[in-house]
Design brief:
The protein is an all-beta fold. Helix content is 0%, strand content 51%. Strand 3 and strand 4 form a beta hairpin. Bound molecules: FE2/S2 (inorganic) cluster.
Length: 123
């Protein structure tokens, strides 16, 4: 299986990403702290470029005791990438949609080796 060096780990923002074209296969490579993740840049909804969307913390609505909105709350632990076509969100650490775990980005094996990020593409 082809292995591709997509750049120095230190050159990635945190959180950050690069979308690389590997002989016609686009892969989104993400850095979250000391971890890296990679997915095919194809949204499971309608094949949009999901990995190229905004990177934002998961936002939820807090509910007050009287059942009214207590405002928006941003997760400190979950960061999502948001598909630019129709707004499906995916947890960068798992590739899964926040409410439907069956809807997910297709993972690509990725590792840090010698300070570089290396992905392994299927044949
Ligand atoms: S193609 Fe990604 S949300 Fe529709």
């Amino acid at each position: 299986m082809p292995e591709i060096n997509v750049g120095k780990f230190a050159d990635f923002e945190d959180p950050g990403r690069k979308v690389v074209d590997c002989n016609g296969t686009e892969v989104g490579v993400f850095r979250m702290g000391s971890d890296v993740f990679a997915y095919h840049n194809i949204c499971p909804h309608l094949d949009g470029p999901a990995c190229q969307g905004k990177i934002l913390p998961l936002a939820t609505e807090d509910v007050a005791p009287d059942q009214t909105s207590a405002g928006r709350v941003y997760s400190k632990s979950q960061v999502n990438v948001i598909c630019p076509w129709h707004g499906f969100e995916f947890d960068i650490r798992t590739g899964r949609h926040p409410t439907d775990p069956e809807v997910r980005l297709r993972p690509v094996p990725v590792r840090i080796e010698g300070g570089n990020i290396v992905i392994t593409l299927p044949r």
